[in-house]
Amino acid sequence: MDALLLQILNGLDKGSAYALIALGLTLIFGTLGVVNFAHGALFMIGAFCAVTLQKILSLSSTTLDPTKTDFLGNPAKIETPYVESWFGPEIGAALIDWSVPLGILFAIPIMISIGFIMERGLIKHFYKRPHADQILVTFGLAIVLQEVIKHFYGANPIPTPAPDAFRGSFDFGSMLGFDPNVIIYPYWRLVYFFFSVLIIGGVFAFLQFTTFGMVVRAGMADRETVGLLGINIDKRFTIMFGIAAAVAGLAGVMYTPINSPNYHMGMDFLVLSFVVVVVGGMGSLPGAVLAGFMLGILESFASMNQIKAIFPGIDQIIIYLVAILILLTRPRGLMGRKGVMED
């Protein structure tokens, strides 16, 4: 039982990332009908928003301390972050320590702006083009963004630690009555799971209980009829593209302590997230979320040594095997609408 619980927990953080990225992908496909292969790049940009904020907060000035000397006998150089000079040592140190959560506030306007620019500058010209054209142009855009990040930040991963309060691990097993130190789980992975649930719940509440969301859902079901009512549905869909970009970016921001940001992390998650969307059902928001968590947990179980001893390498292909099975037996996905992807 303890091994089962541990694998479920291990699958939650990756499943949370899959679900958040797939949710944004499904929002874009459901509203605009666009297959956006640049969505993984938005996840990557969000991660580098956190990296950028940490670098900004860590900018420092150099002063000489005559009371201390280095090994050559010269006055020692003291690096003092500007935020500590402006706000005091305690507040400045706290701002640097909490740079990742603060990255949420930093990333939201940036990601929404990038989403608007992508949609208005490029995506809108491919609404009525074949899906193959959409895939090619957005995949090319993803490569361009990836190379831009590589140019400015380098090819090596950049460690971005979680706040001190959330470093270390939580003895999850002892809380459930197991022996101590049997089920140990990092605090930040729990934070990421609850954060993803909050974002997913917020998106669903926005679509379900606000007038704007109701109009968007109506537009997803029958775009022409909503347009005939005098509603500028295109403008609302552009806003939804910005929201989808923000969701992907926030997923990247909070994932940085789990996986150090690198320029190809967007591609790493993109393909898997598209598989999640296909399994859940193209255009189905609940299906994307359900499939994200389900496949994340399934991948975690497949990585167990006992399983890999029987099926070597199964952890690398299990998600694709599930996708093949779903496409063969139920092409519209687990929760997709009838007729979608079944022609």
UniProtKB/TrEMBL annotation:
It is found in: Cell membrane. It is a multi-pass membrane protein. Its main location: membrane. It comes from the Bacteria. Keywords: Amino-acid transport, Cell membrane, Membrane, Transmembrane, Transmembrane helix, Transport. InterPro entries: ABC_transp_permease, BCAA_transport_permease. The chain crosses the membrane at residues 15-35, 42-60, 102-123, 190-216, 237-258, 270-297, 309-328. Belongs to the binding-protein-dependent transport system permease family. LivHM subfamily. This is Branched-chain amino acid ABC transporter permease. It comes from Pseudohalocynthiibacter aestuariivivens.
